[in-house]
Amino acid sequence: MKIAFILLFFTITVQAVDVEQRWQFLAANRALSNNDLKKFEQKLIELKDYPITHYLRFFYLKSRLTTKNSQNILAFLAKYPDSPIAKSLRYKWLNKLAQKRDNAMFLIAYTPQEDTALRCYFLKANLKIKHNLTGLEKEAKDLWLVGKSQHSFCNSAFKYLYKHNLITHKLRWQRVRLAMHEGELQLAKKIARGLPKTDQLLLKRWQNIHKNPAIELKNFKYPDTPLAREIIAYGLRHLSHQNADKAYDYWKNNFKRHYSFSYKINTELLYYIALEGIKQHLSVATTWLAEIDKNNDQEINHQRLQIALFKQDWYMLKQIIQSLSINLQQQPQWQYWLARTLEETANHDKAEMILQKLAVFRGYYGFLAADRLGKIYNFPSQKLKIKSETKERLLVENPGLIRARELYFLGLTALARAEWQDVLPTLNQDELKVAAVLSHKWGWYDRSIAAINEINYNSDLDMEFPLPFYDIIMSQSQVQRIEFSRIYAIILAASKFQTDAHSTDGRLGLMQLRLKDANNMATKQNINLTNIEELFLPDINITLGTAYFRQLLNEFDNNQLLAFAAYDAGVGVVKYWLKKYSCLPTDIWVELIPSRDYVQLILSYISIFDHQMGNQQQMPLDTIQADECG
Questions:
Q1: Per-residue pLDDT tens for 244-270?
Q2: Which phi and psi (to 5°) does residue 111 adopt?
Q3: Least confident piece of the model among 16-30, 111-125, 231-245, 246-260
Q4: Coil, strand or helix: which one is 184?
Q5: How far apart are CA 283 and CA 306, in angstroms?
Q6: Is 338 exposed, middle or buried (0-12, 13-18, 19+ CB in 10 A)?
Q7: Using 50, 70 and 90 to split pLDDT, how confident is the model at 29?
Q8: Which alpha helices (DSSP H) does 131-168 contain, by range?
Q9: Is 262 buried (19+), middle (13-18) or exposed (0-12) by CB count in 10 A?
Q10: Of 61, 110, 516, 630, which is least packed with CB atoms within 10 Å of its CB?
Q11: Phi and psi torsions of 477, nearest 5°
Q12: What is the spatial distance between Cα 391 and Cα 434, in angstroms, rounded to a whole number?
């Protein structure tokens, strides 16, 4: 394993660990990489008092998951049962044992796992050795009773359930329902083969409703049973995505009258249909909400706001705001739009009073208010204070925090983060403050930001908006003709300065680049990307990410607002939004687009980073209007 030792951290004045031990750790790891096991074992002896020496043993075992090492692995797992690396090692070893079909050792090594394949192999191994699932039938049923197909390791356990008549008709219908709600129509049909023909016909009708809800619901005539009501509710939700007006008509004039839906289900159905109607900009959908008490629902209220703004119906917007609770009305978003409503209805004095109060806040709506008043932005900041005795105690008495620090200093960031995440829930408020300050001092900014978010402290600008990677950001700022604050804002919004960040949709690194975009930019920048891990290197990621943002700016004629939206949602989507909302004022355009939260964050971050560097600039709210708007 390669370890990038960060020399900068040698200057940190934390003396609980001798720096020499860090060098020895690196030497031991190099010996292991070179397969010099004699030197490796000697270094382990020399490092016996170092807090993370057992990580070297973990590296050794992880790369040698063989039958010969079984006892050593078991001993390690027994010695460090709660360590993040023990969990990782056990997971890797169990997978190896499953691949080798070593059922006996698998059962010895197994502890309850979240991974479905391993859970299923545990049952499979029991069947191979004990030939039954006595005491494990519930585990097998739990794995079977899901709305999707499971790993092939599960097949033997599922056959056991069928063979021993443990799958009743009731259970079959439960899984059919789950599969239908997951959209797994073929699985639902397969499971239903064990049901009576009448039940299979009902499922066929249900699947037809999935494919064509408008026609099938119109002709749906079944006795009033719980299953029939479930199918109707499913169909109405499905139809509301396509045509909320028609779904409401079916519900109001047919199904609500002829089927005994509970008050709860009726309310949930109307809520769902109304929400879809508002998303489809149906004005009538706002009146549907009068039938249920949902006036404090955040999502519904924002959709109502969007309808009023899309129509620029300031009277409607005023009514919406007045319908909110007093607490909601006081939130910056609603205060801003109340002020805008008053401006548009020629009540300028009251509008200005609201904007004056709002402009003291640091954030998107506060900055918008300041812009309308022509005032400079307000940047209140107060250093996070910690107790020195708490700091000293943590650095001496908290082994998890010490391990996290050492691993981070050695460049083992992912392992360090795992230790950190184990420690965080055990800390009280004072200790969390210390953890935030320490991680900031170490340069571990993503953990520092996470810690201050944990304690809900947003008054220390230096901790919330640090300025790492300064040289490369300033360099690329000049190369791509992009102000540095824009790059910093994208990084903070995208990754919170976590260099190895990766999202579920495949975005990678500090600037959360998609692999396709990264490769495209690398070609244009004459950078040879040899593997995906290089995208976690700050210099490479920032270089490619900044080039990609420059490409977006070029695509949208240097309109920063459109480029930011495209960075989040893609060029094609933003062009659609531009066409749909192009003749609206800029603040309304931002409020209407699905990427509004991201864009609002970016805009506010830009101004704060400008302030951090001693600049005073307004948010880049470029005009969003097409030529045909006049």
A1: 999 999 999 999 999 999 999 998 999
A2: -130, 160
A3: 16-30
A4: coil
A5: 11
A6: buried
A7: very high
A8: 137-144, 155-163
A9: exposed
A10: 630
A11: -60, -45
A12: 6
